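Researcher: I'm preparing a figure for a lab meeting and need a structural model of a single chain. I don't have an experimental structure, so a prediction will have to do for now. The sequence is pasted below. Please return the structure as tokens so I can convert it later.
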Amino acid sequence: MLDEPFRWMEAVSTRHSYIREKLNKGQPVLGVPYNEGSLLVGFAPQPGKVYEIYDRIAFGALGHPADVERMRMTLLEMAHLEGFNRSASDVNLLRLLQFGIAPALKQNFEEVQRAPYLIQLLLAEIDPSGAPAFYRLNYDGYWETFPNGVAIAGDATVMDWISEEIGKTDFANMTLQQALKEALRLWEAGRKHSAELNDDHEEDESVPLSLKDAFGKWNLEAAVLSRTTPRKALFRRLGKDEIENVRAEAMK
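Model: Understood. Here is the structure written out token by token.
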């Protein structure tokens, strides 16, 4: 019995390795500010990376589609219950993270008899003062906040590299189109950075290396939380014309 704590720690370590391996091919989702709000953007073979959660809240995700849907529904229910029991103005990401989704993920991860969630989330919010905030939530319930934008990706090295580049870029003073183009440029640079890191290993040829390839093979999902909209809900998916403009430039 004396070795029970060691066995638990060994099981937790194994779960970390297992989940990281499963998420390794998850493609980046970028969350950045722009001069009228926040932008979430990412490529995927099938839709399922960017969602609305509540009036001022959105999230991007990578991982197993069933787990992404479970987390989406959980966040939706938490936000609407909070809005019903308190008020819509009391619904904010900090409360949802601290008292809801993060503890639930932590408990699931540490109960080693249960299957872990294969998921990583990027959450975005426009607070009542109009300031954007971004949060990164891990499969084990660990979360961090980033006021200037952040990325999630299955490859932790690429995720950190793109996030660092986002922090160096003045997205907050860009228009939506400028921020979208710059975010996609970082997505492409991240792919090339990944290829350089894996120079000694076999690259997955099914994953596009350039923006041109990505537009040819995959779908671009992009949505904003716009503080200039007259609607209560700030979330809006980018339209076909807005996507086509940036696609046309990438295909030149």
